[in-house]
Amino acid sequence: MTRYKPEIVLGTILLALFLAVCYWQAPGHVLTKGEIEAYVQRIDQLAPLPAQQKADFIADLRAWGEADDGKPVYMFNLMRYYPQLQPLPGTEVKATSPAEANSIYEGMTMGIALAGGVQMPVGSNVQGVRKGATPSTNLIGHAADVDNWSRLLVVRYPCRRAFFELVGNPEYLTKMMPYKFAALHVDLVPTDGATIMPDSRLLLGFGSLVLFLAFGWLRA
After folding, report:
1. Residue 83: closest CA among 59, 107, 101, 69
2. What is the pLDDT of residues 38-63, one digit of tens each?
3. 10 located within any domain
4. Which domain holds residue 170?
5. At how many degrees (to 10) do helices 98-115 and 160-167 cross?
6. 3-state helix, strand, coil in the chain (%, to 5)
7. Residue 177 is part of a domain; what is its CATH number?
8. Domain count, the chain
């Protein structure tokens, strides 16, 4: 037993780390109507959005929350920078451009998002397809309201509760949200992530490592 003590200690540490990450990423309980209303009231009170935009957001948020299935959410963020920073009631955004404001926003939200088990598997700047008098970022679909995007994110939430926790956080609402909504138009589309393919390089590397260690163990 003494001979294998280092291996046992290392195995225990790795197992504890694995279980901690699993807990961090575990879906939460389904939202209750009371919890939804508590989040919604906080957003209604603190979100620095124009009245109609806030009302629409709250109505959609309430409907989505009431349909909670307790499963992870992959939130599709499609964003288009405004030509210049937009004023929001009662807020001050310390940035010189929409792109800078959004960069500040993403940096500020990183800590609070990670604490809630939120991850961003994809964060991309749009490449652009056509420039000139009629610029476009799309290969297909050129209607004005669905073209000329600036940035795309896919954000994984362990459950809908994690999203409500983020957007219902007072610090987020008063200090972070203004930077995002002053900088860009955003379409948020929640999806279920029904098909997610892991990176084949990681699978091959992990499988090769397991095979190599198993081969060495059998020959020991």
Report:
1. 101
2. 999 999 999 999 999 999 999 999 99
3. no
4. 30-194
5. 120
6. 50, 15, 35
7. 3.30.70.100
8. 1
